[in-house]
């Protein structure tokens, strides 16, 4: 409490400035992956599903490709409090962002001289435009949580340091600080938050490397510090997590397959460009977009990202040469590079970069920027002009963030901007196509899907999406061709099987519809959607008893399945069992109180 009172004004500024800049993000709707992660995700609506966190069901039903239980847990709590009101989820993200800014303020007080420099670091982190993706994207909350716990762990590690003093020549006034140790309680607490960061996002595995960089750069320890017990413990935790994550918790088919992007040399060059993109985002945050160019060989060797890559490399080299007495800034830049390592495409990945990946690394840039600005101000003879320049820099960053928040108001504006800024991104075109299809413009959607396929013809999802759009337009033959193309690239893809079953049902080819959905159920027996589709096939054939069996199976797997409850009511109504029909329609209405169809059906029953 005393610490908060002592730093009340800086903390108040962080909250007021950060809250004010992100205030216009609260009315934004669910966008990007929020639709499946939150809006359409029934998993987060039932606290009973917490027991599935350590089973294969977690990956499929939580809509997470990684083991991030803390993130999913926040969705449970948000849904319990806000339901499907998007502003509540955005408010949670904003609170997490501001809390991280507060932690960074206290962390930078340990590394920089004075409150002003620490406040500058926290404000750079809070208002920098590149942070808008992580704050506005509810489904990107893992970056917020990971950074919060990562910075807390680092703060506690540094705060728990204890220096023993050694007497020289029996002279009590002649002592040197030596033998740096960490208080066991503080080290244990640091490990606790490190584990929380790991359970939020995999990027936290870089924490031991950051600690080594801190010991070598800030504490001027020799590299042999890596063999000290506390450092070994941190590396062991990362290693155990890595093994558990990819060997024990990994489930086949839960991670999207990354296409091949060239040989090792090409990937190394791609990593260099990925670093360049992140550097450009940090130092020149303009033309931001939710999707950047695909990392294909043609893009790797082009000049599309060569300039930012070279500029970043030159800047890092220049700072390294002038690192004298700038330990905190040097540590900040090394922090930036270390925390970027997991996402630099050294292992083939379908994404060259994303702004949210820079959320944690921006802590390092904020540290470097605050030290640079504060030293420049202290050494300047015209402090008023330097203060004005710093003010203008912060004003420009804040204006960029406010403007970028508006682009996240809905999917249409988000992906329209993405296509304009990054026309070489197949994901941008596919995302725009999906949104155009969702708002009832399938013809325009097909155009975007074709553009995505032109850029990357080996992605099966693009053909599948175009098949769905053709089906909506009534072009069933073209739809079948696209589904078959998708299936050739990814044989046995459950999504294609589901869509093929729906297509065959619409065209009256019941045997092939049954065949496709039975294959889907075999591949995903835990998924209620397969049984719902099977039940709809039975309804089409007026086989109401088999349909009821299918819907009851789906309901057993998902007790909150609105479609299952509604269809069960319909089947029992057609069989003349009005009591059972009323029972299931009433349950469905409880889940969707404003559904006019259910209200009408119940009125007919009564």
| Helix run count | 30
Oligomeric state of shown chains: single chain
Q: Which regions are unreliable across 5 or more consecutive residues at pLDDT < 50?
A: 164-179, 251-260
Counting helices, strands and paired strands, the structural category is mainly alpha
Tally of extended strands? 2
| Domain count | 2
Shape: elongated
- Tell me roughly what share of residues is in helical segments: 55-70%
Structural account:
This protein is mainly alpha-helical. It folds into two domains: 2-407, no CATH class; 526-606, Serine Threonine Protein Phosphatase 5, Tetratricopeptide repeat (Alpha Horseshoe), CATH 1.25.40.10. The protein has 30 helices and two strands. Strands 1-2 form a two-stranded antiparallel ribbon. α25 (510-523) runs antiparallel to α26 and α28 (562-574) runs antiparallel to α29 (578-591). The longest helix is centred in the first third of the chain and has 26 residues, at 86-111.
């Amino acid at each position: 409490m005393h610490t908060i009172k002592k730093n009340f004004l800086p903390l108040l500024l962080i909250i007021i400035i950060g809250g004010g800049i992100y205030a216009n993000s609260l009315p934004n709707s669910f966008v990007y992956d929020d639709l499946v992660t939150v809006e359409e995700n029934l998993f987060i609506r039932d606290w009973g599903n917490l027991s599935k966190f350590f089973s294969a069901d977690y990956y499929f039903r939580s809509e997470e490709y990684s083991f991030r239980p803390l993130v999913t847990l926040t969705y449970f709590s948000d849904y319990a409090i806000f339901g499907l009101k998007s502003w509540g989820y955005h408010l949670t993200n904003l609170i997490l962002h501001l809390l991280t800014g507060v932690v960074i303020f206290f962390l930078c007080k340990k590394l920089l001289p004075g409150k002003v420099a620490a406040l500058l670091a926290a404000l750079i982190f809070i208002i920098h435009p590149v942070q808008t993706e992580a704050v506005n994207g509810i489904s990107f909350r893992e970056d917020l949580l990971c950074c919060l716990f990562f910075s807390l762990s680092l703060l506690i590690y540094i705060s728990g340091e204890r220096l023993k003093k050694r007497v020289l020549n029996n002279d009590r006034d002649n002592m040197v600080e030596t033998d740096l140790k960490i208080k066991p309680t503080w080290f244990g607490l640091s490990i606790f938050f490190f584990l929380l960061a790991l359970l939020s996002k995999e990027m936290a595995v870089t924490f031991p490397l950051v600690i080594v960089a801190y010991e070598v750069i800030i504490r001027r320890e020799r590299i042999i510090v890596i063999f000290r017990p506390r450092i070994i413990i941190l590396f062991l935790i990362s290693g155990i997590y890595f093994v558990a994550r990819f060997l024990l918790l990994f489930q086949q088919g839960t991670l999207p397959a990354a296409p091949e992007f060239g040989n090792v040399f090409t990937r190394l060059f791609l990593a260099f460009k990925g670093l360049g993109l992140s550097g450009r985002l940090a130092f020149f945050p303009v033309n931001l977009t939710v999707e950047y160019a695909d990392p294909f060989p043609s893009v790797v060797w082009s000049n599309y990202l060569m300039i930012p890559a070279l500029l970043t490399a030159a800047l890092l080299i220049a700072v390294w040469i002038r690192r004298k007495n700038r330990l905190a800034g040097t540590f900040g830049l090394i922090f930036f590079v270390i925390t970027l390592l997991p996402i630099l495409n050294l292992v083939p990945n379908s994404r060259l970069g994303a702004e949210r990946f820079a959320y944690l690394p921006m802590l390092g840039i904020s540290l470097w920027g605050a030290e640079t600005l504060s030293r420049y101000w202290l050494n300047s003879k015209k402090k008023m002009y330097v203060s004005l320049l710093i003010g203008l820099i912060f004003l420009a960053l804040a204006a960029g963030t406010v403007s970028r928040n508006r682009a996240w108001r809905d999917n249409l504006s988000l992906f329209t901007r993405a296509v304009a800024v990054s026309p070489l991104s197949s994901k941008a075109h596919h995302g725009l196509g999906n949104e155009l299809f969702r708002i009832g413009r399938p013809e325009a959607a097909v155009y975007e899907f074709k553009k995505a396929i032109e850029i990357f013809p080996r992605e099966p999802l693009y053909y599948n999406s175009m098949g769905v759009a053709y089906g909506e337009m009534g072009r069933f033959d073209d739809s079948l061709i696209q589904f078959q193309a998708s299936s050739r690239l990814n044989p046995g893809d459950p999504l294609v099987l589901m869509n093929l079953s729906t297509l065959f049902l619409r065209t009256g080819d019941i045997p092939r519809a049954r065949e496709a959905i039975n294959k889907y159920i075999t591949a995903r027996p835990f998924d209620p959607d397969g049984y719902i589709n099977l039940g709809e096939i039975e309804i089409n054939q007026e086989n109401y008893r088999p349909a009821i069996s299918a819907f009851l199976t789906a309901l057993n797997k998902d007790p909150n399945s609105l479609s299952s409850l509604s269809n069960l009511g319909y089947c029992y109504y057609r069989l003349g069992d009005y009591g059972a029909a009323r029972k299931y329609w009433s349950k469905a209405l409880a889940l969707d109180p404003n559904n006019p169809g259910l209200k009408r059906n119940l009125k007919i029953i009564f």
